[in-house]
Structures are given as structure tokens and as C-alpha cells.
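Dear colleague,

As promised, here are the two records you asked about, laid out in our usual form so they can be pasted straight into your sheet.

NAME FIELD: protein one
SEQUENCE, THEN STRUCTURE:
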Amino acid sequence: MDNQLDGTIVAEFAKNSRDKVRVVLREYHGTPLVDVRTYYEDDAGAWKPGRGISLRRELLGKLLAGLTKAQKLTRETEAKPVQTTICIDKEGAR
């Protein structure tokens, strides 16, 4: 598994209509990594890696903690009612 494209896909989901995200366990020069990367489909129909991040596997817990915190804050923000402020000038126009 020293080839940077080899590995075990543990998750894959659509990012949008053209791209997908893959989470892959792989090794690079003997170092175990977790790779989270976007993939795009080229003109020949092959999926090519795009931007992403590779972390040593021992950092996975820190990444997961950060993502869990982001998810919690997102849920809290979505649960709050949206406040709208409307400013009206002296002539009554918005």
C-alpha cells in the first residue's frame, strides 16, 4: 500500500452533482494515514483525486472531536430562531 492512490475506502458520499468525498485508510512510505479528499470525474469517466487532507491515524481522534464540535454548534445554530432587523429611513423606505 505504498502507492498514494491505494487504500481502503471506508466512506464515500456525493459532495455535489460533480464531485464526491472519500475517506480512505492508506499508507504512504510506511506511515498509516487517514485521507479525506474530494474526487472529480475526468472526461474519460475515471475518478481523480482533488483537494483534501491526509493525517496520521493517531490524529483521527482530534479530527473527530473537531467535527463533532462543529456538528453540535451547527445544530444549536439551526435550532435558534432567526432574528431579522429592518431599518427604515426617515422617508419610510427600506
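NAME FIELD: protein two
SEQUENCE, THEN STRUCTURE:
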Amino acid sequence: MSSQTRTIIERLTSVDIPQLKGVHATYLVDVADSGTWNLRVDDGHVEIAEATTEADCTIRANDRDMALLLAGNQNLLTAAMQGRVGVEGSLVLAQRFAGLLGSSAIGIAEPNRGQP
């Protein structure tokens, strides 16, 4: 089975997200059994690379939940409170980033909501 998260991220090696203007941070996106990516945000410009590095904010989830988060179809806080997503580091950065890769920001289609 292919990873929904990997499919989303591989389309986004470098992108500008106006909603992240003013943000200078690093994120680590860790997806169980799918991969780990480092997202470096510099004043709204996001560079994405497959890597395991230190980050200001780490977000961990399974493939389905992470794909829903990245597409803006799942609220990060709700998923974290339900135990489906783990967040380490800056919660402010996590909340600011959540959903901004969704369809309204850069045209990502909604991921499959079916069971994995």
C-alpha cells in the first residue's frame, strides 16, 4: 500500500505558503511506517526533505491521520486530544502549521478517508 502522506509531500519539495509569512522554524513530520520529513520554514517559504533532524516542532501520526492533517481535513488539536497525533516542542508552531498545506493553501486534494 502506498503512503498517502508520502504522495502529498513528494509534490511539495519547495513551496511558498503566505499564511506562514513571518515564521522561521523547523518541523519534523514523523509518519509511522511511511517516513520522516524535515520541513524548514523561512518567512513563508517551505523546503521539504526526507530526513530525521532536530526540529522546533515534531508531529507524529499514522499515515491516514497525517494525510488528513496535511490536507487540512483534520484539526490538529482534536487529533492530539484523541491520542491520534503526538506533538513535541512548540505547540504554537504546531497549531500555526496544521492545515496550511491543505487545498486552500496550495491545491492538495483531499486524501482518501477510507480505512488503511
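A couple of things worth noting about protein two: Strands lie at 14-16, 24-31, 35-42, 45-50, 57-61, 85-89. DSSP finds five helices and six strands in the chain.

Best,
R.
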